[in-house]
Amino acid sequence: MSRFFVGITGASGHRFAQTLVRALVALKHEVHVCLTPAGSLVMEHELGLPCGENGDGLAALLEQWIGPGASELVICYDPRDVGGEPASGTAKIDASILVPCSMGTLARVAAGFSSNLVERAADVALKEGRTLMIMPRETPLSRLHLQNMLSLAEMGAVILPCMPGWYHKPESLQDLLDHAVGKVLDRLDVEHSLGARWAGLHSEPEEAGIRRAAEGEEAP
Ligand SMILES: Cc1cc2nc3c(=O)[nH]c(=O)nc-3n(C[C@H](O)[C@H](O)[C@H](O)COP(=O)(O)O)c2cc1C
User: Fold this and answer.
1) Does the beta carbon of 47 lie inside 6 Å of ligand 1?
2) CA angle 88–92–97, rounded 5-degree value
3) What are 47-86's pLDDT values in tens digits?
4) Whole-number Å distance between alpha carbons of 140 and 105
């Protein structure tokens, strides 16, 4: 079992975070989750889950958000809790993922601002040389957004935009989400069967590798 930190911000795309946390829980990994206050607004807007003004109400909605059994593996933090476990480099967190990552959080992490637990956990991943994966969401991207991504990439962060592909012939929104989250899990070195693996241009999608159905597995 690995331990991951997932920081959820006020960018659009909360289904990506939900799909990632569901997949990690289904694979029996421990997930430390923190939602920013702006993230709380967006989560209510996109997923209909009211997590409170400060994003501290997520723990009470865990089963609704992730599904049965989530409370055994998911630990939620108040974003103001900068004394929480993920705030220290001594805590054994294998990798931190910011998904979706707003341009605000991106800028503050690039500048080492650490004004809440999401930004602090990202700062810790950088200073400890651990995987920091950022899934930015904005369009179009300004020069400043691109500069912030470049400086984080130069510091070792993985920039993996919420940018699903179409070549695997998705039939549903969940197929698109699974494809993108499968790429995150690959970069985290987590074994999974999410989405389809490419097996060449002339292969049928069913033959194109690991599809959930082929493994008799339900989407998480
Ligand atoms: C519905 C909604 C969608 C938003 N989508 C984005 C987005 O995709 N990208 C972004 O950078 N900001 C977006 N914002 C603005 C951020 O929430 C805002 O900049 C906020 O201050 C970010 O705070 P945080 O980084 O602490 O979460 C959105 C706001 C709302 C209410």
Assistant:
1) no
2) 80
3) 999 999 888 899 999 999 999 989 999 999 999 999 999 9
4) 17
Tokens of 169: 């012939």
Asked if the bond preceding 100 is cis, omega within 30° of 0, the reply is yes
Q: Ligand 1 atom 19: the closest Cα is on which residue? A: 104
| Residue range 124-136, pLDDT digits in tens | 999 999 999 999 9
Let me know: does 151 contact 158? Beta carbons within 8 Å. no
Q: Assign 172 a pLDDT band (cuts: 50, 70, 90).
A: very high
| CA 104 – ligand 1 centroid, Å | 7
Domains and CATH numbers, the chain: 3-215 (3.40.50.1950)
> Does the beta carbon of 137 sit less than 6 angstroms from any atom of ligand 1?
yes
Q: What is the pTM of this model?
A: 0.93
Indicate if the pLDDT at residue 211 is higher than 50: no
- What distance in Å separates the CA atoms of residue 201 and residue 196, rounded to the nearest whole number? 13
CA 49 – CA 195 distance, rounded (Å):
26
Pocket residue to mutate for ligand 1, from 12, 46, 80, 119, most atoms within 8 A of Cβ: 12
For residue range 16-34, list pLDDT tens digits in order.
Answer: 999 999 999 999 999 999 9
In this prediction, residues 144-153 reach a mean pLDDT of 98
Question: Is there a cis peptide before residue 140, judged by omega within 30 degrees of 0?
Answer: yes
